[in-house]
Amino acid sequence: MPSAILILNNGLLAFYRSYGEQKLDDFDLTAGFFQAILNFSKLEVGENLETISMSDSYYYFLVKNAFSFILKEDRSSEKTREQIAAILEQLSDKFFQEFPDAASWNGISNYFAKFALACDWIVQARPTRKGFPILFRIALVPLFITPVLQVLPVKSENEETLCELQFQLKKYVREIGRKNLSTWMKQPFLIYLPHNRRIAYIISFHFGMKPTSITHLLCYITEEYDWFALYQLLSLFFKRSQYILPSVAHYLSTLEHHPISPEIKQDKEKIQEIVNNWADLNQYISEMHALLSEEFFKAGLASENLTEEKSRTNFLELLAQVGKDFDKALGAALGMRQVLFVGTNREVVEQALSAFLTFYPHPSVNLWTESSSDAHFIGTRPDLVKNYDESTVIVDLINRKVVGGEKIEFCANLLNETMMYAKEMSVSESHIFFQGKISAVFTLLKALLEVLMLEKKDQQKQFNELFRKYPQDSLQLMAQMSRNLNPLLAKILLSAKTS
Fold first, then answer.
1. Same domain? 293 vs 368
2. What is the pTM of this model?
């Protein structure tokens, strides 16, 4: 089975499909991958099979009509060059058959997303999945939350999780009150399932796409050991949900009002496919790798100018410029708020943002854009700031300050300590220190979500123990982060802070 399929056009990633389990720490921004691909893409490669060798993989290239079709294989693969050549030929032929106007592609991501099914069929493989979806129908009077199993069946091994989630959702609704339901559930939220030790990410919507009402809950469930990866990728989960929900809502509306319509049977498999593709953490981790690759392609950043020493210098320069305020940007990032890096010199902006990303990799990045973007981290010109929401935090590289956000003591302490490590020790050691501290934040956040699911009589006791155990700066950060994760938890932390 191949590790991945990539399709490039003019140095940009047009399509990416990963097979096998992915981990966030598989990706190294300073690796030779960029340099090898960038150098190779400059060659005048004809329609012949070419290969480059990396430490643990081979990349096989076939170029047709300005598109590079790349098959990544582990070194242990037993495929012959003839078999690999045949796969790449089939991929390229099928690609241009499905997208005859591919040459006019304007760089929009996800444009070639539907090629995934053909890709799986050609390589005779399916991606390893992480997690699964559940769809609920919800009503308030009387209160019921019931799974829509005729649309999204649940495997027998996940039935216990389904029951626990159903129970916890009813408890959550009672806690927030029916009057507050539409307001409190307007944004996605997280629930911890203590019995099955899983995390649920829940998005509410109306099958008529009415913004003020809720009829359904679309849930993604994954194992608790994937918690850190899930949190890092929530922006991608939400972004992609906005693409699929109109189709899902239309199908559910038809099911509700015209249950025997031919459209119901005809589109059922399609709806299941798009929801299952949405609910797969493994592909999001792969997409994180791919999106970061694409941004570094566009910026022309390669291993030669992303050495450890250059990474250290760029990071220290960034903190020297806006150090006293940069805790606000880091706090905003942890709280899933949009962060703009703003300047008139594109190279300076890309350098500053990429320096931060070497310490805090994130999937939703646009190193430089001269139009609006919904990415989490964005590099842009100062005159384009007006296009973004008032809650956006701005790292102003011209005036050396951070605009917006809140002072976060935990983040300020972490940045000061990391700067000391970066000056005195290796970059890898300072990375380990920084990411270890960030990991501890997510451990605490998961613990708080777990306590939230306890019965009232046990809940307050456990919260008090955590409040005594952890320093105030960590709890302050938790209060900010939980605003976008779970309104009930945010309310409890705010009460603890003011009491």
1. yes
2. 0.73
